[in-house]
C-alpha cells in the first residue's frame, strides 16, 4: 500500500466533502492519515486528522497565551539558572516566536543579558 502525505488546508476540506457519507475512519484513511505498523497492521490517526480539519476550518481552540492544551503552565517571561548551570527556554516561548527544531542562533553576551540573533540560510553562505 502506497503512503501519501496527509492532506491539509483547502485540499483536506475539499477531499472530505467529496468523500460524502464515508465513515470518519475511512475519510481519514483516504486523506492520508494512516500508517502501517511494523507488523503490517494499518493504523488510522484520527487525532491528527481531526486536528488538521480544525486547523483547515480556521477554528482557534487555543488561547493567544500559547497554551498546549494539557493545562500546563503559562509563560511567565522569567527563567532561572538550573542546578547544572543551564538556562532552559521553554516551548511556550519558541512556539510564540514561531521557531522550529534545528533553528540556529548566534549568542551575544552582555553584562546582565543574552542576545540571540537567528542565523538565516543566507547568512551561512
Automatic annotation (TrEMBL):
Any GO MF annotation of the entry: DNA-binding transcription repressor activity
Keywords noted in UniProt: DNA-binding
Matching Pfam families: AbrB-like
A GO CC term attached to the entry: protein-DNA complex
Coiled coil: none
Location of the SpoVT-AbrB domain: 76-121
PANTHER family hit by this protein: SLL0359 PROTEIN
Name assigned to this protein: AbrB family transcriptional regulator
